[in-house]
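Researcher: Please translate sequence to structure tokens.
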Amino acid sequence: MDFSGKRIWVTGAGQGIGYETAAQFAALGGDVVGLDKSFSGSNYPFATVRLDVSERDQVQRVCGALLEERAQLDVLVSAAGVLRLGLTEELSFDDWASCMSVNVSGPFHLFQHTIPQFKRQRSGAIVSVASNAAHTPRMLMSAYCASKAALTSLTQCVGLELASYGVRCNLVSPGSTDTAMQRSMWRSAEGEKQVISGDLQSFKLGIPLGTIAAPEEIASAVVFLASDLASHITLQDLVVDGGATLAS
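Model: Translation complete:
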């Protein structure tokens, strides 16, 4: 778990899972670039670059500048994501498009502009942060579930294309995690307890381990899959949800 000398990019690094992931890589010696639309703080343990992953031209410019600065990319983590809720017939097209443009097109843009570097190196690791929502349907979450399912398939297809170059591609699919996105879904002060115990209206039967995840727990799974400890693991989707998918 030593990332000394490794160049690592993490999207969504301004908060939540992305921040914890970037911070863990930095603590393990990595040369980390955190990418996000905004950074609310001023003292991050890694370099920060503003990037809206949904903007294709912006991704091209930023990737080009970073690779010109240092022509090396050992780990790419796509952790940026958005959630839009609503019944399918009531969901606005803007909400649908937002989920697709950030959760799917964002990683796609990054893949297009980093795959040539990975191929030149003939080494590297890619980890996409998907969701257990890609595996089971959820009420009010058709856009989000569809986008994460698409991200899962996209990442695995890229992994197949890059396997012969020695580049590994995997996914971490979190369940309920203590982030701003998760808290936005809670309808009352009892939201966390309801998630753990289950919500029949959402066809969610709860979390067997009895707790929601901390962002650093998800980050640890990402870091593991990017490390040499996972040197023979590729095309895998590691679900980190306390058993919730099995119970739903």
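Researcher: Any highlights?
Model: The CA atoms of residues 21 and 220 lie 7 Å apart.
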